[in-house]
Every structure is written in structure tokens, then in C-alpha cells.
Design brief:
CATH architecture of the domain at 11-163: 3-Layer(aba) Sandwich
Distance between the termini: 31 Å
Strand content: 15-25%
CATH class of the domain at 11-163: Alpha Beta
Strand order of the largest sheet: 2-1-3-4-5
């Protein structure tokens, strides 16, 4: 029996996320594979991450260490995502990416560097080679959740907006190290809060379908890309999380984040925006510009991000206040 017959009001949710990553090809040296699996088998870690977030299906990871073996796997099996680590001995990761893209142009291929020093050396070359994104291994296995969900969001966002008009969160950050650090935090918060809102009155199947309708996260790495994404999804933007310093027209601009706020505020004066910066002096300027502020170096960054999302994105309790602003009541749902 179809989902539409069993639960007609959930029919549209059933059709969301037509592209889902189920098979991952990890191309890495044996040493890098050892580092990734120091705390347990990588596939098991990924399964536990998905299980803890009530995500039903965790992708399977197949690892190879040689370029020719990777090409062979791609020719004979379904692969939804390729992750390449840069230290491959005699294999040039840039050339390997180019080869893969020649035969599989729509296949997401990302680089996972072992440290931020590698990203500085490889970032420009990785873009030229055709990598979709570069990430940095920070010791948190949830980076794989972020890579998977970011690629799924990018591939599904247009379809899902057209289907049910879901919402989009735009993240603007040019440093692979920083977005590799906070995207796992952001995705975990979004998924946890989405589950929190739907605990009451839904069976397991309905919860899984509703999880497909969580806000999509779109990553931009410069001002021009951010504005293009904002104009593209303008009617569906839930909020913006932005760095302060990143390129504008190809040149790094220490005022980029404030310029972005100004451009957005012209048409959307009340849209939730938070500036994230490692420069504390930007805090007062952010508030003056009508944005919130998160210190990237703060020990409370997880709490600060969660508080912003709960209060600004509608994931928190329903708070009842007097005209003076004094809180007089709070409810987790409207039952």
C-alpha cells in the first residue's frame, strides 16, 4: 500500500529528497584511513551518528587506496559520493578528481584534508580540478554527516522547494576549517530541534517523512555567491549565518559580512542573521546592524548557536510575554 493511501497528508513529504547518498567511495592512503578509524570503524561511527539522530538509513563506505581501483569501482558499482584524501602517494588527487568528473560530471566529489595547512596549499587547485567542496578532518566523525547532508541538500533543494516550499538556511564562510568545524554542530542542532517539534502525535514513519522537510543548508564561500543564493531562494530563506571577512568580487574584504547584512536588510529588515567572527570587536557592530553575533573562538559556541536557532528559527518553546517583554509563560507545543 502506498504512503499516499496510508497517510495522505504526508504524501508530499514522501516525494522529498529524491537524491539520497547511500554509497560512498572513500579514496585514501592506509595511514589516513587509520587516523579516521582510530576511535572505531568508520562505517560503524556513521551508522551510530545516523541512529542517534533517528535517521533510518546510514550510507555504506567503501575504501580504496589506488586511483585505478577507484575508477574500476565507479565503472562497476553505484556510487553517490566520492571523498578523496590528498595524501595518496603516487596518485595526484587533482588529476584523479578531473578523471572522475570527465566520466561522472554530476557525481559529487569532495576533498577531505587532514589539516588546515593542507587546505591553504590545495584550495585553489581543488576548485580548478573540479572538487565540489573541500573539508578538513577535525577529529569529529560527524563531519561525514555534514558532507553527506550538504551534498544532499544541494542536489535536492530546487526539487523540494518546488514540491512543498521548504525553507533554506544560507551559511557564508570561506574557510574550510571553520565550516568543517561548525557544520556538524549546525546539522545536529537542526535535526535535533526538528525532531523535538514533532515528538507528539507522529508515528515513526511520519517522523522520518517529516525529517525530509527540515530546512536545507546552503553553503556559500564569498559575497557574490551568497547574494546569488539569497536572490535564488529569497522567498524561502529562514535565516543567514555569515562570517565577516571573505572575498567580494574575488578580493578578501574585512567588511563583507556587513555589506551582506546591508544588502539583505534593504528588502528583508526582519530576517534572522547572525555574524560569526573570530574578531570580538565586530560584536557591537553586528548588533548595531541588526544582527546577532557568535564568537568563533568561544567555548560556548555550541550553546550560542543552539540559542540563536531556537529563538530565531522557530525551534524553541512558545514564549508568552507581556507588552513590557516580561516572560509569563512557556509551552513546548500548542496542545
Amino acid at each position: 500500500m502506498s504512503i499516499e493511501v496510508v497517510a495522505p497528508k504526508f504524501a508530499d513529504f514522501f516525494h522529498l529528497m529524491p537524491f539520497r547518498i547511500q554509497e560512498i567511495l572513500l579514496i585514501s592512503s592506509k595511514y589516513d584511513a587509520f587516523i579516521l578509524q582510530e576511535d572505531g570503524q568508520l562505517t560503524e561511527q556513521l551508522f551510530n551518528t545516523f541512529l542517534n539522530l533517528n535517521l533510518k538509513y546510514a550510507p555504506r563506505i567503501t575504501r580504496v587506496s589506488r586511483g585505478e581501483r577507484a575508477v574500476e569501482v565507479l565503472a562497476t558499482r553505484r556510487v553517490d559520493l566520492v571523498i578523496i584524501m590528498p595524501q595518496l602517494g603516487d596518485v595526484d588527487p587533482m588529476g584523479l578528481c578531473t578523471t572522475i568528473k570527465e566520466t561522472h560530471p554530476a557525481l559529487p566529489v569532495v576533498m577531505l584534508a587532514y589539516n588546515s595547512k593542507q587546505t591553504n596549499q590545495l584550495q585553489e587547485r581543488s576548485r580548478e580540478a573540479g572538487f565540489d567542496r573541500m573539508f578538513v578532518w577535525t577529529g569529529n566523525s560527524r563531519i561525514f554527516l555534514s558532507i553527506i547532508k550538504l551534498m544532499e541538500d544541494r542536489m535536492n533543494v530546487h526539487h523540494d522547494i518546488a514540491r512543498v516550499g521548504l525553507q533554506v538556511i544560507i551559511v557564508v564562510e570561506d574557510s574550510p576549517y571553520y565550516y568543517s568545524t561548525f557544520l556538524p554542530i549546525l546539522y545536529t542542532i537542526i535535526m535535533t530541534q526538528t525532531q523535538r517539534l514533532m515528538r507528539q502525535g507522529l508515528n515513526d514513519m511520519h517522523r522520518l517523512l517529516r525529517m525530509r522537510a527540515r530546512p536545507k543548508i546552503i553553503l556559500a564561500t564569498n559575497y557574490d555567491d551568497a547574494m546569488e543564493r539569497f536572490r535564488e531562494f529569497e522567498d524561502n530563506v529562514l535565516g543567514v549565518l555569515s562570517d565577516v571577512r571573505y572575498p567580494v568580487a574575488g578580493i578578501e574584504d574585512p567588511e563583507a559580512g556587513f555589506k551582506l547584512i546591508g544588502a539583505i536588510r534593504e528588502k528583508h529588515p526582519n530576517l534572522p542573521i547572525v555574524l560569526m567572527s573570530s574578531e570580538p570587536h565586530n560584536k557591537e557592530r553586528a548588533y548595531a546592524a541588526g544582527a546577532q553575533f557568535i564568537d568563533k573562538n568561544s567555548s560556548s559556541i555550541i550553546h550560542d548557536m543552539k540559542l540563536f536557532i531556537q529563538s530565531q528559527f522557530g525551534f524553541g518553546d512558545f514564549v508568552f510575554r507581556l507588552p513590557t517583554g516580561k516572560e509569563v509563560g512557556r509551552a513546548t507545543d500548542l496542545k
